[in-house]
Write a structure and sequence with these properties.
By secondary structure, this protein is an all-alpha fold. The chain is 74% helix and 0% strand. The protein has 6 helices and no strands. Helix 1 runs antiparallel to helix 6, helix 2 packs across helix 4 and helix 4 packs across helix 6. The longest helix has 23 residues.
């Protein structure tokens, strides 16, 4: 991304904002890994698998599975998830705010994964 300072700066700012959301660290990394895997960015998958592992044991695997499912649903529906899908996400203790934070994570890491793939990283 260094060839486009604006792209790099935009990603860095969005990434910092995403890190400041109310989603817990395991959930944030789950969103990132889900986006990276969906977009087949092997560099991002490797990097964020290491970050995820460094967080330590997963406190609630079912909760993270809900984050992964919801992230994929948001991507597939271009944000227009059903009420049932949103309710299923919320049933794991997440909020509408968290749902919007997932959207932020998807946007942020779509920039990164697309740029990496464009540059053959």
């Amino acid at each position: 991304m260094k060839e486009s300072p604006q792209t790099l700066e935009g990603f860095l700012q969005l990434s910092a904002i995403f890190e400041s959301t109310t989603l817990d660290p395991h959930s944030r990394e789950t969103v990132i890994l889900t986006v990276a895997a969906h977009h087949r960015c092997h560099l991002c998958v490797d990097m964020h698998e290491a970050k995820f592992a460094a967080l330590g044991p997963v406190p609630d695997p079912e909760r993270l599975a809900a984050v992964r499912r919801f992230t994929l649903q948001v991507i597939a529906a271009a944000g227009a998830v059903s009420d049932e899908e949103l309710d299923a996400f919320r049933a794991h203790g997440f909020t509408r705010r968290n749902a919007l934070e997932v959207v932020l994570g998807i946007g942020t890491y779509t920039v990164s994964t697309f740029a990496n793939r464009l540059n053959r990283a």
